[in-house]
Design goal:
With about 180 residues, this protein is mainly alpha-helical. It is built from eight helices and no strands. The longest helix has 18 residues. It is flat.
Protein backbone atom coordinates (compact mmCIF):
# COMPACT_ATOMS: atom_id res chain seq x y z
CA UNK A 1 0.00 0.00 0.00
CA UNK A 2 1.30 3.43 -0.87
CA UNK A 3 0.92 6.07 1.81
CA UNK A 4 0.65 9.83 1.34
CA UNK A 5 3.46 12.23 2.18
CA UNK A 6 5.78 11.19 4.96
CA UNK A 7 4.74 7.59 4.57
CA UNK A 8 1.57 8.26 6.54
CA UNK A 9 3.35 6.89 9.59
CA UNK A 10 4.67 8.39 12.78
CA UNK A 11 8.42 8.49 13.33
CA UNK A 12 8.11 5.67 15.86
CA UNK A 13 6.18 3.50 13.41
CA UNK A 14 8.72 4.16 10.64
CA UNK A 15 11.52 3.15 13.03
CA UNK A 16 9.61 -0.01 13.96
CA UNK A 17 9.23 -0.99 10.31
CA UNK A 18 12.93 -0.37 9.72
CA UNK A 19 13.77 -2.66 12.68
CA UNK A 20 11.59 -5.40 11.18
CA UNK A 21 13.48 -5.13 7.88
CA UNK A 22 16.83 -5.36 9.66
CA UNK A 23 15.62 -8.37 11.70
CA UNK A 24 14.75 -10.06 8.41
CA UNK A 25 18.25 -9.33 7.07
CA UNK A 26 19.78 -10.86 10.20
CA UNK A 27 17.75 -14.05 9.66
CA UNK A 28 18.60 -14.34 5.94
CA UNK A 29 22.10 -15.54 6.79
CA UNK A 30 20.61 -18.52 8.68
CA UNK A 31 19.14 -19.84 5.43
CA UNK A 32 15.56 -20.01 6.74
CA UNK A 33 12.63 -19.92 4.33
CA UNK A 34 10.63 -16.82 3.48
CA UNK A 35 7.38 -18.26 4.83
CA UNK A 36 8.93 -18.99 8.20
CA UNK A 37 10.50 -15.52 8.43
CA UNK A 38 7.27 -13.84 7.36
CA UNK A 39 5.29 -15.69 10.01
CA UNK A 40 7.83 -14.86 12.71
CA UNK A 41 8.01 -11.15 11.81
CA UNK A 42 4.29 -10.90 11.01
CA UNK A 43 4.78 -9.52 7.50
CA UNK A 44 3.83 -10.81 4.06
CA UNK A 45 5.85 -13.52 2.36
CA UNK A 46 6.11 -11.25 -0.68
CA UNK A 47 7.81 -8.54 1.42
CA UNK A 48 10.35 -11.02 2.76
CA UNK A 49 11.05 -12.26 -0.77
CA UNK A 50 11.53 -8.68 -2.03
CA UNK A 51 13.85 -7.85 0.90
CA UNK A 52 15.85 -11.05 0.35
CA UNK A 53 16.31 -10.25 -3.36
CA UNK A 54 17.49 -6.72 -2.55
CA UNK A 55 19.81 -8.06 0.14
CA UNK A 56 21.39 -10.58 -2.26
CA UNK A 57 21.89 -7.99 -4.99
CA UNK A 58 23.22 -5.05 -2.96
CA UNK A 59 23.56 -5.97 0.71
CA UNK A 60 21.95 -4.71 3.89
CA UNK A 61 21.71 -1.06 2.83
CA UNK A 62 19.51 -2.01 -0.13
CA UNK A 63 16.84 -3.29 2.28
CA UNK A 64 16.63 -0.01 4.19
CA UNK A 65 13.65 2.24 3.54
CA UNK A 66 14.20 4.93 0.92
CA UNK A 67 11.61 7.22 2.52
CA UNK A 68 8.24 8.29 1.19
CA UNK A 69 7.33 7.48 -2.38
CA UNK A 70 6.37 11.01 -3.34
CA UNK A 71 7.83 14.37 -2.46
CA UNK A 72 5.68 16.89 -0.58
CA UNK A 73 3.41 18.85 -2.90
CA UNK A 74 4.25 22.13 -1.18
CA UNK A 75 7.94 22.92 -0.84
CA UNK A 76 9.23 25.20 1.92
CA UNK A 77 8.84 28.35 -0.19
CA UNK A 78 5.22 27.58 -1.10
CA UNK A 79 4.42 26.54 2.45
CA UNK A 80 5.70 29.92 3.69
CA UNK A 81 3.34 31.62 1.22
CA UNK A 82 0.50 29.40 2.44
CA UNK A 83 1.20 30.39 6.05
CA UNK A 84 0.94 34.08 5.09
CA UNK A 85 -2.35 33.44 3.28
CA UNK A 86 -3.75 31.50 6.24
CA UNK A 87 -2.69 34.28 8.62
CA UNK A 88 -4.94 36.69 6.68
CA UNK A 89 -7.92 34.64 7.82
CA UNK A 90 -10.80 32.93 6.02
CA UNK A 91 -12.82 36.14 5.59
CA UNK A 92 -10.04 37.65 3.47
CA UNK A 93 -10.44 34.70 1.12
CA UNK A 94 -14.20 35.00 0.79
CA UNK A 95 -15.63 32.79 3.53
CA UNK A 96 -18.32 34.24 5.80
CA UNK A 97 -16.71 33.35 9.15
CA UNK A 98 -13.29 33.00 10.80
CA UNK A 99 -13.08 29.18 10.84
CA UNK A 100 -10.31 27.34 9.02
CA UNK A 101 -11.38 23.81 8.05
CA UNK A 102 -9.53 21.19 6.04
CA UNK A 103 -11.92 21.75 3.13
CA UNK A 104 -11.27 25.49 3.14
CA UNK A 105 -7.50 25.06 3.34
CA UNK A 106 -7.69 22.57 0.45
CA UNK A 107 -9.69 25.08 -1.60
CA UNK A 108 -7.19 27.84 -0.80
CA UNK A 109 -4.28 25.64 -1.90
CA UNK A 110 -6.09 24.78 -5.13
CA UNK A 111 -6.87 28.44 -5.85
CA UNK A 112 -3.47 29.85 -4.90
CA UNK A 113 -1.05 27.15 -6.08
CA UNK A 114 -3.12 25.13 -8.58
CA UNK A 115 -2.30 21.92 -6.71
CA UNK A 116 -4.87 19.35 -5.67
CA UNK A 117 -4.53 17.70 -2.29
CA UNK A 118 -6.58 15.04 -0.55
CA UNK A 119 -8.34 15.81 2.71
CA UNK A 120 -7.38 12.49 4.27
CA UNK A 121 -3.76 12.13 3.20
CA UNK A 122 -1.87 15.20 2.05
CA UNK A 123 -3.65 17.97 3.85
CA UNK A 124 -3.65 17.09 7.57
CA UNK A 125 0.15 17.35 7.70
CA UNK A 126 0.14 20.76 6.02
CA UNK A 127 -2.87 22.05 7.94
CA UNK A 128 -2.04 20.73 11.42
CA UNK A 129 -0.26 23.88 12.59
CA UNK A 130 -3.33 25.94 11.70
CA UNK A 131 -6.06 23.66 12.93
CA UNK A 132 -4.76 22.52 16.32
CA UNK A 133 -3.60 25.79 17.92
CA UNK A 134 -6.81 27.52 16.92
CA UNK A 135 -8.86 24.79 18.52
CA UNK A 136 -10.48 23.58 15.32
CA UNK A 137 -9.26 20.06 15.93
CA UNK A 138 -11.05 19.92 19.29
CA UNK A 139 -14.73 19.40 19.96
CA UNK A 140 -17.04 22.37 20.23
CA UNK A 141 -17.41 23.85 23.70
CA UNK A 142 -21.17 23.99 23.24
CA UNK A 143 -21.41 20.24 22.59
CA UNK A 144 -23.80 18.52 25.01
CA UNK A 145 -22.51 14.95 25.44
CA UNK A 146 -25.72 13.79 27.16
CA UNK A 147 -27.85 15.10 24.29
CA UNK A 148 -25.60 13.42 21.73
CA UNK A 149 -25.73 10.11 23.61
CA UNK A 150 -29.51 10.36 23.88
CA UNK A 151 -29.86 11.10 20.18
CA UNK A 152 -27.68 8.15 19.24
CA UNK A 153 -29.66 5.86 21.54
CA UNK A 154 -33.20 7.09 20.78
CA UNK A 155 -33.31 8.73 17.34
CA UNK A 156 -30.60 7.02 15.31
CA UNK A 157 -32.11 3.50 15.44
CA UNK A 158 -35.33 4.84 13.91
CA UNK A 159 -33.42 6.53 11.07
CA UNK A 160 -31.64 3.36 9.99
CA UNK A 161 -33.35 1.33 7.32
CA UNK A 162 -34.55 -2.05 8.55
CA UNK A 163 -32.53 -4.99 7.33
CA UNK A 164 -34.12 -7.27 4.80
CA UNK A 165 -35.34 -10.47 6.35
CA UNK A 166 -33.83 -13.65 5.04
CA UNK A 167 -36.20 -15.96 3.31
CA UNK A 168 -36.97 -17.57 0.01
CA UNK A 169 -36.00 -15.57 -3.01
CA UNK A 170 -34.10 -15.75 -6.25
CA UNK A 171 -31.08 -14.17 -7.85
CA UNK A 172 -33.02 -13.60 -11.05
CA UNK A 173 -33.61 -9.94 -11.94
CA UNK A 174 -36.56 -10.63 -14.20
CA UNK A 175 -38.50 -12.95 -11.93
CA UNK A 176 -37.24 -12.16 -8.41
CA UNK A 177 -39.55 -14.43 -6.44
CA UNK A 178 -39.75 -17.39 -8.79
CA UNK A 179 -38.27 -20.59 -7.55
Amino acid sequence: MRYPQGGGLTVERQAFRERVRMEAVAVFTDGRGSTEIAKELRVSVRSVQRWRRSWREAGQDAVRSRGPVSRPKLNDRLFAVLEKELAKGPVAHGWPDQRWTLARIKTLICRRFHKSMTLSGDLPDAAAPWLEPSGLARRAVERDEAAVAGWVKEVWPHLELPRRRSGPGSSSRRRPDSR
